[in-house]
Amino acid sequence: MKNIKKVIMKQRNQMKKKLGKKLSQRDQKRLGMLIKGRRYVS
């Protein structure tokens, strides 16, 4: 389970880096809420 959390954190951080360059601050906040709300399972 701990390994899965690490992988999810890595993916989440990569998503933030990729999307953060393209999105405005308002969109970044909205995206952050979505990711936290769903706990980002893939």
Explain what you see.
The chain is mainly alpha-helical. 83% of the residues lie in helices and 0% in strands. The chain contains two helices and no strands. It has helices at 2-22, 25-38. α1 (2-22) runs antiparallel to α2. The protein is elongated.
Helices and strands in order:
Layout (H helix, E strand, L loop, with lengths): L1 H21 L2 H14 L4
Helix pairs in contact: 1-2
Question: Which descriptors apply to this entry?
Answer:
single chain, mainly alpha, 2 helices
Give a short summary of the structure.
This protein has helices spanning 2-22, 25-38. It is mainly alpha-helical and 42 residues long. The longest helix is centred in the N-terminal third of the chain and has 21 residues, at 2-22.
**What is the H-and-E element order?**
HH
Largest sheet: none
Uncertain regions: pLDDT < 50 for 5+ in a row? none
Judging from the principal axes of the Cα atoms, what is the shape? elongated
Strand residue content: under 5%
CA distance, first residue to last residue? 14 Å
Mean of all residue-level pLDDT scores? 72
Radius of gyration: 11 Å
Number of strands: 0
**What percent of the residues sit in helical stretches (DSSP H or I)?**
over 70%
By helix and strand content, what is the structural category?
mainly alpha
Helices, by number, come to: 2
